[in-house]
Amino acid sequence: MAYSQKSNKTGEEYYLHCKDVTLRGGRQQTIYYFAKEEKSNACDLPSGYEVMENSRTGLPMLKKSK
Question: Sign (positive/negative) of CA torsion 44, 47, 49, 50?
Fold first, then answer.
C-alpha cells in the first residue's frame, strides 16, 4: 500500500511515488513525487521526511524533518 495524502484545499487524493535516476556525474539518486493515480512505482513515506502542502496550489510536497 502506498502512502497517500488528501489535499486540504482541493480534497483530492495524491499518492507518493519513487524512482531511481542516474545523474550526469553517474551518481544514483532516488526522487520522490506525488501523483493523483497510484501506479506500480508507488512507495511508502521515507524515514526522515514529512509531508507539507503548498498553500497556494494545495499540492503535497516532501520536506526533510528537523
Answer: positive
Q: Where are the domains of the chain?
A: 4-64
Which three three-digit cell numbers place residue 9?
484545499
For 30, 44, 57, 66, the CA distances from 12, given in Å and listed in that order, are: 25, 18, 12, 27
Residue range 46-65, pLDDT digits in tens: 999 999 999 999 999 999 99
Model-level pTM?
A: 0.88
In terms of phi and psi (left: phi > 0; alpha: psi -120 to 50; beta: otherwise), the region of 25 is: alpha
